[in-house]
Batch of 3 targets.
Target 1
Amino acid sequence: MKTSREKMLRRAQRVRTRLRKLANGRPRLSVFRSSKYIYAQIIDDVAGTTLVQASSLEDVVKAEQPKTWNTEAAALVGKLLAERASEAGVKEVIFDRGGYIYHGRVKSLAEAAREGGLSF
């Protein structure tokens, strides 16, 4: 019997494999969600570097939303990431939800990033 962690890692690998086929050189917006915080980064897989990142640990997010584990904080992280991406010159990305369901905090982050100017 596989543990829930092993199952999630397998789902994440399946999602990333599919994204590599569809990416066409676009950077990947990767999301990691813990029980307290949410992290997002835009990764250039060709060069193997992180272009921009944002998380609910940052003071900018904590000042507006003291509860870092809810959908409002995730939306702030998505908006912050989109602002930083536009400054770095990134407009189009491919969304990597990892092994997480597109619901709740992950969905909130994605929608805020779209509203902020990222297209995926």
Note: The radius of gyration is 14 Å.
Target 2
Amino acid sequence: MKRTILLAALFCVVAVAMAQPAKDTLGNWSYHFQLTAVSQSHPSFSAKYSGENSLLSEREGGKLSVTTTLFVGRKLWKNASAYFNPEIAGGSGLSAARGIAGFTNGETFRIGSADPKLYIARFYLRQYIPLKNSAYAFVRSDDNQVAESIPTSRITITAGKISLSDYFDNNAYSHDPRSQFLNWSLMGNGGWDYPADTRGYTQGLVAELVKPGWAIRFSSALVPRKANGLELDYKVTKAHSETFEFEKNWELKRPGAVRFLLFRTASQAPTYIKTLTDIKVGDSTSVDVYTGVKEWKVYGGIKFGFGINAEQEISKSIGAFFKASWNDGKTATWAFTEIDHSASAGLHINGTGWKRPNDHIGIAEVVNGISHEHQDFLNAGLYGFIIGDGKLNYGAEAITELYYQAKLFTNFFLSADYQFVQNPAYNKDRGPVHVFAIRGHLEF
């Protein structure tokens, strides 16, 4: 863990040396930086039994994760720019990020190694294509955004190494685990098994039609070769994922938005029913595919689903959100987490009322579930790459999260976070679990 902190500190020094003050002027370059550290713990809890992927029922404390990212942008030609994000991640989540489908730390990846790693998170090109008679609006320099004037009616093409969550399923109040809710199933719609490697990135193309008040987005991206895999599958005629989203924004008395998402993924994912049938006749060759231990090399697994995501400002200091998602739940979870349907709602409150307008409170409830086929699979003593207790007394996984984020200095934020997890990994025989966290976030 010391290596993680030292390497992140070195990265921070390099970022400071490169950084320039944000300016409201056009520029060819942008440099931004973030460092986020999260420490989580939970006391002991009741568990009638445990399996290979269970959350440890004994007390766990001081599980520290650190991520640090450098955001570099360069303007190329008219309406075009390129972005490059080297990133370092290290540390570990509670129980190696296993045992809860809606896991409690969105800054922890499913790698299982505490050693810090330097890798390329994003490296992509973006081109704006103005539509006829479009007006232009100035945007400030920000993470992966050079200061420039962009057309308000446009087609945007983005291609390269990306994170699809940067473009789809956005929400002003519940999307960023570095400053908002930490839970995986609150930072995004849990039922969307979005295409990504273990760290949350993929390679692909995003096309957007953006008009004042609404937008349409479409993407085609690579999927992992194995469940929860770090290597992507380049057999693009057999393995790929498509996502479509329609977004409607409004400015009535208060701003709000709603987004409708559809997705379909083709991969090597086997089906739960076929695996259970094969086991009955003595064939267990597909069992290790679900945990990502081996590549199946059998294509044809299809997962599809949808999501809805809405936000509404209620007053100058209060905003509300709602999300719901579903997938067919017939094939193995391949990239995100083992949730087949999910619904969440919550409130975001800024500190204007107590004269700290840059502080924030968030409170939310999320309920996650899995398909009958998925239940049967786990009850048979089998495992995915996130959950599995050896057997299952099924109940919906319900999580309540409450956080307070305080802006202590110009660029530094400190948060206290609490999560109450009922039926972790959908198991009534385990829990409930109380999870506590401290989060520090530096940005400039």
Note: Residues 13-25 have pLDDT under 50 and may be disordered.
Target 3
Amino acid sequence: MELIPAVARALEELRRQRPLIHHITNFVTMTDCANATLAIGASPTMTNAVEEVAEMAAAARALVLNLGTLQAWTLEAMLAAGKSAAAHGVPIVFDPVGAGGTTFRTQAALRLLDELPMAVIRGNASEITCLAAHKSGQDFGVDSRLGPADPALASSLASHLGTTVAITGAVDVLSDGCQTAEIRNGCPLLTYVTGTGCMTTSLIASFAAVADPFTAAAGGILAMGIGGEAGPGRGGEEWAGDLSRPSLRCLLSIK
């Protein structure tokens, strides 16, 4: 699969269509996620009222479910929106923020996985390990302390759940169980900005509105990584989100 050309085509298509991306997301990073969605070319909505999320999800082209500021009512909103999205063929992108930290958070993540068909799951190594092990108490923060992402873990969990799994970190790994890719773009300074993982999930959902889940995961991760490399003072004014520019180093390998 020629992944970079596929991502470039998907970027052109989402900017042409400007798809609606419904978020039930982290209150800490909500504005950043909305701005990232706008910047890549999609249109965000951040509706989270239980009374209207099902209707909004049905009207959207992709749905983001983010556990960042989890509460009992946001979990119910996620379930309602997710079931509506599934019924209308809307892809769901799941961000299990902090999964493994507490029993409540871990059980919420596992319930969502059990009841909803996820197109893409994006998390750090700690969060994805928690989902695979069905175990809480591993990591109380949102930063992974488990070291590099494990391609075998991503592939096995993707195969088990029938989804695409993306583990982000110093080296990003994504797999749909059949193909696995490693992405080595990015900037260490991204780890000092709150919400870059949440924003990456929003970018993946934007791509998922117009592309298959594996391409969408690669597109969202590449957009964040290359954007970090080409930030202010580093050539960002020349990038403007054009993944087809020959000067960009899309450091990706597929196994």
Note: The chain has a mean pLDDT of 86.
